[in-house]
Specification:
With 261 residues, the chain is α+β, with helices and mostly antiparallel strands. 37% of the residues lie in helices and 26% in strands. It folds into 2 domains: 87 residues, no CATH class; 137 residues, Cathepsin D, subunit A, domain 1 (Beta Barrel). A hairpin with a 2-residue loop joins strand 7 and strand 8. The longest helix has 26 residues.
């Protein structure tokens, strides 16, 4: 018999191997948190579906079916929380992904009109005064922080910043803008009276080859050029009356052009 206690034998004084410790079970707190997340996701989904289809729940029978479905989902969620930790995480991950996909789709259907208006609102917020086309022959001009409606138009191809002024009879160019687009003020006769929101000033009549605001434009457009300095040129009733209509919706001025203009 070989010497089991020798250098090539097994040591008799080695301690026996210890069994691996059992894996800890999922904590009750984690299970409760997972169940609460599933309940919240289910409630959000039910709310989104009710928002998307407001006429679907019309009587007590419809509500009872909804309550039965909600209870069934809670029962399934409670069963998932009783699985092992590894299985729980895997199934909860799959359930969360599907719940998120369904919730996003349901919210997209419920708020489809609001979502469709997001690009338009972003364009209005960052327009910098350029009119935004919002419909067939319709332009939107946002209100600025001072409460004015400022729009960038073109006079003879040159950009001019106007304040829309329903109290001004004429469309009035400031002398600064008039010089910038090439008008020789020394050859004008300032014998007219221009009524503006700032009062009555001396003005001269002048015709622009074309006045353009977005896609709305008029040729041979008569304007007034103010003699005194102005902070902005004014887009008055002489322009607005050529439109089919103009109205204020919230903080946005809507200009609607006539057909063919």
């Amino acid at each position: 018999m070989p010497d089991e206690g020798g250098p090539w034998g097994r040591a008799t004084d080695e301690p026996p191997a210890r069994p691996a410790p059992p894996r800890p079970r999922a904590r009750p707190r984690r299970r409760g948190l997972a169940l609460a997340v599933l309940i919240a996701a289910t409630a959000a989904l039910v709310f989104a579906l009710a928002k998307a289809f407001p006429g679907a729940l019309r009587d007590g029978e419809d509500w009872s079916r909804l309550a039965y479905l909600f209870g069934f989902l809670l029962l399934v969620a409670a069963g998932l929380t009783r699985m092992g930790q590894i299985g729980l995480r895997r199934h909860l991950g799959h359930a969360a992904i599907w719940a998120a996909i369904i919730a996003v789709l349901a919210l997209g259907v419920a708020f489809r009109q609001e979502l469709a208006a997001v690009p338009q609102r972003l364009m209005l917020a960052f327009s910098g005064g350029d009119p935004v086309k919002v419909g067939d022959r319709e332009l939107a001009i946002p209100q600025n922080d001072e409460g004015s409606y400022v729009v960038v138009g073109e006079v003879n191809g040159q950009r001019v910043r106007f304040i829309v002024d329903t109290g001004a009879t004429d469309t009035v160019l400031s002398p600064q803008d008039a010089r910038r687009i090439g008008v020789d003020l020394d050859r004008l006769s300032f014998d007219g009276r221009a009524e503006t929101a700032n009062g009555v000033g001396r003005s001269a009549l002048w015709r622009a080859d074309r006045l353009q605001v977005g896609p709305i434009g008029f040729n041979d457009f008569e304007m007034s050029i103010n003699r005194a300095p102005m902070s902005h040129s004014l887009l008055g009733l002489s322009f607005l009356r050529r439109l089919q209509s103009f109205e204020v919706r919230g903080r946005t001025l809507i200009l609607r052009a006539r057909e063919g203009s």
